[in-house]
Amino acid sequence: MIGEKVALVPYKPEHVPKYHEWMKSPFLQEMTASEPLTLEEEYEMQESWHQDEEKLTFIVTSLPNDDSRSLKDIPETEIKDNTVMIGDVNIFFNDQDQDPTFGEIEVMIAEPDYRRTGRGREALKIIMGYALQVIGLKTFHAKISLKNDPSINLFQSKFGFYEIAVSTVFQEITLEWTLLGPSSTAKVDEYGNEIEAYGSKATPEQHNTVLSVHRDLIAYWNNNVKTGHYA
């Protein structure tokens, strides 16, 4: 999936060595709540994620910062040679009731020089557009370290996510984005107990913001994203 400055490509074995180097960083380990793995374990993890139908994983690649071109100006056959790995973006289909319209979303820009450049925002626009338009998702949750203010701000101020929970134990905040309105029918767990429905904590203003962002995401997906097989 090809945007203006970034492209999302499936996570493949060829990406593992670079990814492994990224995850040696104590900062990234803390921000992603990850444990360091050996290179062999990283290859095994890549293979398991590739086979897991509950995980959607893409590597974020980008034109170098000093390249002013748009990816649209570059032939698809040349994009791979003109871009560099800068991070990843993922969706986990892990709703406890197997709701196929729910996904937990996360983005990591691992290369410091590419943070706060709009790359993470574009990667989210692409994968959310894909998830909404192609897969049919309606609800996203994002669990973010309380220390990761830039990421929290990105999800809240640029995409209209709103807070629904804070865990002091795991030191993380859970944000929600859903097309389902505040009056959505409550969910019931396996014991018949009523649990909060997606969207139940959104104010009318927050829900209207989500609907506005949704329109923008669909327009962006339809007008600014190409799908290709260059990788």
Automatic annotation (TrEMBL):
Record's keyword terms, sorted = Acyltransferase, Transferase
Q: Which residues form the N-acetyltransferase domain?
A: 6-182
InterPro entries found in the cross-reference section = Acyl_CoA_acyltransferase, GNAT_dom, NAT9-like
Output the PROSITE patterns linked to this UniProt entry: GNAT
A GO molecular-function descriptor = N-acetyltransferase activity
Q: Which domain of life is it from?
A: Eukaryota
Q: Which family is it part of?
A: Belongs to the acetyltransferase family. GNAT subfamily.
What protein name does the entry list? N-acetyltransferase 9 isoform X2
